[in-house]
Amino acid sequence: MTVQDLAPVRRALISVSDKTGLIDLARALESLKIEILSTGGSAKAIREAGVAVRDVSELTEFPEMMDGRVKTLHPKVHGGLLALRDNGMHVASMAEHGIVPIDLLVVNLYPFEAALARGAGYDEMIENIDIGGPAMIRAAAKNHAFVTTVVDVQDYGALLEELKAHGDEAQTSYGFRQKMAQIAYARTGAYDAAVSTWMASAIGEETPRRRVFAGELKQTLRYGENSHQNAAFYTDGSNRPGVAVAEQLQGKELSYNNFNDTDAAFELVSEFLPTDGPAVAIIKHANPCGVAKGATMKEAYQKAFDCDRTSAFGGIVALNGALDGETAEAISEIFTEVVIAPAIHQEAKDIFARKKNLRLILAPGLANTAEAGLAWKQVSGGILVQDRDNGALTVDDLKVVTKITPTEAQMLDLLFAWKVAKHVKSNAIVYVKDGATVGVGAGQMSRVDSALIAAKKAERMAQALELPQPLTIGSAVASDAFFPFADGLLEAAAAGATCVIQPGGSMRDEEVIAAADEAGLAMVFTGMRHFRH
Ligand SMILES: NC(=O)c1ncn([C@@H]2O[C@H](COP(=O)(O)O)[C@@H](O)[C@H]2O)c1NC=O
Q: Which ranges does the record mark as transmembrane (predicted)?
């Protein structure tokens, strides 16, 4: 096979489920003197628009049959796509069997992903698995030395430009065909990823022997976690509310770290439903440095900010409700990288318009933290897959293990601390008072250190705010995993915590409970752990 840079396009086969842009494309191809072959519905639409088109069934001399399951699966189609135009034997076979070359394939597939999104039943999903389309795409893309393959409506414009760019005859360059072939294979790969992932869940296969992940480029990023790392953001097609589908209203492009931190902030604040009242989370390096509820959004922000004002500088702020003017004014007082909210008042937009660098993101509603799904993490040579941590508790799930039972107000703070601890890197210790974090210890290798660091931060804030004592005095404390020894719990007690929430389940639970009783603490067990790494 010799690769020609320019390949003529004299015949196209169009078979599209999504008919967007179809007529304009067909008209343009006709004006370029390209013969159009097409399948049932596509051919009908083209013909109705007054453009000349030949039915594939006329070419194959076979009717489309079995509800469209068989229409293009024929040697006259696949031979026309796959034949090497410079191979004598291929050319002879074409002549012998009446196969004509097909130089351009335009296909988009049965809308399997859309059927999945609307929760279609098993039989409907099966009928939405396209067979003939992927077969043609793979054939044409393999023969990109001669054939151009287009699978995305968004590429119609580039195709037409390319066809017109090389003189009077419609031709495409090798580079263009290669580029389109790569996209084509990624499309069929993503399609089969969606089919196999759906199938695993439909048949209750939790750990299928083979798994595929597919992504679509949302944007290239200036760099990754560090400036020497290339990076890009790919969406997974789930349309889950959050950073992937949110709209950026102003500010510089989100960086890799911005995406990561904004996601962490938004997932955390989404733990608090609008019915819980206004809530704000401030995130640095994927850990919260302040989370609070308030009577107003401004109050929630102020309380979150007061947890750790030093760390909040350059942070990511996420809100569970509308960003109003007074909250925007308060946020504007320090340097903030990103603000994300499910609604943004015009007044807030006007205030942030003065802060050109601040990235303002409008999310389409809160994330559903209870939603089931998979979480992926790359390790050397593989990918770890697990269920998303969608664990959630109510007061009824808690077991009081100490002599003292938490009061109703303490219970509320314990549950608040527990929700926050779920989003803090382990070992996580979170002190909460009156619906606001007052100390967060994150990512330490020792639980005792997390308890100590959080308490130290609270002391520092008390000094800065000129409070008579740290807010950890009389606080509720959450530990994301059990206390293996009493020492971590005693550190929290020394910091002034009066009630504790933790999973329980340690070999030394008895010892830890005895220490809690002796320190006069109320303690509840959740029976659920929230490690996060
Ligand atoms: N079975 C086949 O031979 C076949 N060939 C093409 N298709 C698909 O049929 C759709 C277009 O159908 P229509 O032109 O009838 O609207 C395209 O999404 C295309 O990928 C097929 N359908 C399913 O496999």
A: none
Q: Closest Cα to atom 21, ligand 1: which residue?
A: 132
* DSSP for 121-154, written as a single string: -HHHHHHT--SHHHHHHHHHHHTTTT-EEE--GG
Sheet holding 287-293, edge to edge: 247-250, 359-362, 336-341, 315-319, 279-284, 287-293, 436-441, 429-433, 476-479, 499-502, 522-525, 399-400
| SS3 of residue 4 by DSSP | coil
Helix (H) or strand (E) holding 379: strand 374-379
The token pair at 420 is 């926050």
Q: Is 418 in the pocket of ligand 1 (CB under 6 A)?
A: no
Atom of ligand 1 at shortest range from CA of 42: 14
Atom of ligand 1 nearest to the CA of 14: 14
State in Å: Cα 265 to ligand 1 middle.
43
Strand-pair partners of 384: 377
| Cα dihedral across residues 523, 524, 526, 530: positive or negative | negative
Whether 403 and 425 have beta carbons less than 8 Å apart is answered as no
Any atom of ligand 1 within 6 Å of the Cβ of 472? no
Residue nearest to atom 20 of ligand 1 (CA): 133
Give me 492's structure tokens.
Answer: 């929290």
Q: How far apart are CA 30 and CA 51, in angstroms?
A: 7
110 within ligand 1 shell (Cβ under 6 A): yes
Per-residue pLDDT of the chain (533 residues; tens, 9 = 90+): 666 799 999 999 999 999 999 999 999 999 999 999 999 999 999 999 999 999 999 999 999 899 989 999 999 999 999 999 999 999 999 999 999 999 999 999 999 999 998 999 999 999 999 999 999 999 999 999 999 999 999 999 999 999 999 999 999 999 999 999 999 999 999 999 999 999 999 999 988 999 888 889 999 999 999 999 999 999 988 888 999 999 999 999 999 999 999 999 999 999 999 999 999 999 999 999 999 999 999 999 999 999 999 999 999 999 999 999 999 999 999 999 999 999 999 999 999 999 999 999 999 999 999 998 889 999 999 899 999 999 999 999 999 999 999 999 999 999 999 999 999 999 999 999 999 999 999 999 999 999 999 999 999 999 999 999 999 999 999 999 999 999 999 999 999 999 999 999 999 999 999 999 999 999 999 999 999 99
Element holding 15 (H helix, E strand): strand 11-16
SS (H, E, C) 303-326: HHHCCCHHHHCCEEEEECCEECHH
State how far the Cα of 97 lies from the Cα of 449, in Å rounded to an integer: 78
ipTM for this model = 0.96
Residue 111 CB–ligand 1 contact under 6 Å: no
- Give CA separation, 480 vs 97, 100, 431, 439, 475, in Å: 70, 67, 12, 14, 16
Residue 213's region, left for phi above 0, alpha for psi from -120 to 50, else beta, is beta
Catalytic residues: 142, 285
